[in-house]
## 1
Amino acid sequence: MRTQVGIIGAGPAGLLLSHLLHLQGIDSVVLESRSREQIESTIRAGVLEQGTVDLLTETGVGERMKAEGALHHGFELAFEGKRRRLDLTGLTGKSITVYAQHEVIKDLVAARIAAQGALHFEVSDVSLHDVESSKPGIRYRHQGEARELHCDFIIGCDGAQGVSRNAIPEALRRDYQRVYPFAWFGILVEAPPTSDELIYARHERGFALVSTRSHDVQRMYFQCDPEDSVDHWSDDRIWAEMHARVDSDEGHKVIEGKIFRKNIIGMRSFVSTTMQHGRLFLAGDAAHIVPPTGAKGLNLAVSDVRVLSEALRGFYKNDRIDLLDRYSETALKRIWRAEHFSYWMTRMMHRLDDASPFEQQLQVAELEYVTTSRSAAMSMAENYVGTAPV
Ligand code: FAD
Ligand code: DHB
């Protein structure tokens, strides 16, 4: 089989890239190790920056998101028993949309299938070949048969556990990493929303986040030990912890409901450079991870493929190689900004077991600052809604 661009992984990065290339008349094949049902039901991100929403809308895959997603103009910071609002739109003119990642996946899969795009699920034994030549290939197994996809470019969109990154020789790679000694316990709850906007809470017992999915399903998280197990947490224990961390002295209370999903999510910061080698390019979690606090991961995957689709268009339509040559350098500017923001917000909001009482007071001082100083609030808001596309 032959195509122009071979894409490994049908997450937001791989599917959106395939969609953007199709709109520019460039052929691609997407190879995914999981089933369609699995990718359409994995619960992950929820916050889309305005730039992400605009891109999905402009490229014709935003209809359901517009109808079912919720537009948010701010969020709340809860600390020291109080709640303070960050007015995202007042400060930046921009907003965010809460719309689950697996809904974005469903919309992109539907668009690729409607356009008769090649999307192969449940492939295995994926390996990359000849990435340094102008005729690279991907070998894999599908429906019991060994296959090979010949292409001009290979794009590794296979997430944090994928195989693509390892096709860049170790001698040319530099990895940067920070693993955090805490995790998030995530729950899905049948309940009405606790608040009109997201609540990020810092408490001496640990971080908590109240998010939403719809008028009757809510998404919440609280900081836990990465070695903990969901079996140790009864519903009563979870609600006691959420109330302790989020309820305010001003009378706001988390609204309880039936918990129907529980999972524990590890947290790390990671950047792998370079993001390209020969005819191989990496995008999204395959090259970088952020802790979920700043809600940046999916949005970074989108901004990578925006840059990459422009560079591939330059190659196919205008014989330009310079945009491709500069891909890693261009994408990394935004990636490092988001890495810093996610790290900063994580450090400000979480219980850090090695923090001295002095450092704990600094966390509170910083929260006081971002909720009282317009310039500090602006800095947090502009990062949260997403810095300008590169
Ligand atoms: P992935 O979504 O990981 O997709 C990679 C795909 O490749 C997968 O489908 C995988 O099955 C497939 N694959 C892997 N290996 C192979 C192989 N060898 N061959 C073929 N296919 C392969 N981000 C935000 O922006 N906002 C948020 O609010 C947010 N909240 C989050 C909350 C949680 C709890 C978590 C866990 C993450 C959150 N994120 C958030 C991060 C976001 O979910 C990820 O950054 C995003 O999924 C990255 O997309 P991707 O396409 O790069 O990778
Ligand atoms: C959600 C996830 C996040 O990481 C975040 O910062 C905000 C919201 C969510 O799943 O809704």
## 2
Amino acid sequence: MTPNLNMFSLEGKTALVTGANTGLGQGICIAYAKAGANVIGVARRSCEDTAAKIADFGGSFKEIIADLSDISVVPTIVEQSQKAFGRVDILVNNAGIIKRCDAVDVSIEDWDAVINVNEKMVFFLSQAFAKGWVKDNKGGKIINIASMLSYQGGIRVPAYTASKSAIIGLTRELANEWSKYNINVNGIAPGYMETNNTENLRNDEHRSEEILGRIPAGRWGTPEDIAGAAIFLASEASSYVHGFTIAVDGGWLAR
Ligand code: NAP
């Protein structure tokens, strides 16, 4: 029997993706628009590049400008997203920052900056959308972007590792509470991907060589590599997948 591939379609759905102006967030926006979704990108600066790439193939995209280090923006994001396309069906918590520094030198300000965007905002934005989904009983999808440092310790990134390890736990916790409302909470753990986030690493010849030598696939990942897992977790195809984080890492965790 031919499988019903329509289960991967996002036609008629609306997806909100944070950190949508560049990198993996941009890649996910493009993938969702190609799969038929109306896409809302949230970013602190304009998503014009993402908008242009989606307009090229006639996809549907709107942006919301918000600084995700400030928790007070949550109600505004919910309100503006409803004005843009009505009900949001899919939330991707992608925005994230990394600050590289020896653990003995990390400042309270830098610690808070990382935790606020990578962890606190992920919870409160998820809570804000889930409140509506629990009420209308029509379900929803939350996809949290984790990291290899959700599983490993890393070096010189203590706040980032703490936040990304928290993301895997939070993904499981929210799945335990919200699966019964037909809300799928899952994660994607990207490996080493070519984006701004890893620019310093890629420019460091020694670290870059070390990392590349450990990736079984033999190359860094790209935003396009995330598309398949992101569409799967946003679509009906994953309706019985709850609380799990999929690694898209070129085999890094298998080593
Ligand atoms: P990126 O190119 O640096 O993108 C990060 C995105 O988050 C940007 O759009 C950035 O906006 C946005 N952002 C950060 N702080 C924000 C704030 N306060 N308000 C609004 N937007 C904010 O990095 P990326 O690699 O695509 O990262 C996307 C996610 O994947 C992050 O959660 C990252 O931790 C995770 N990840 C990346 C890798 C990798 O190898 N690249 C690996 C594992 C996990 P601006 O452009 O304005 O800063």
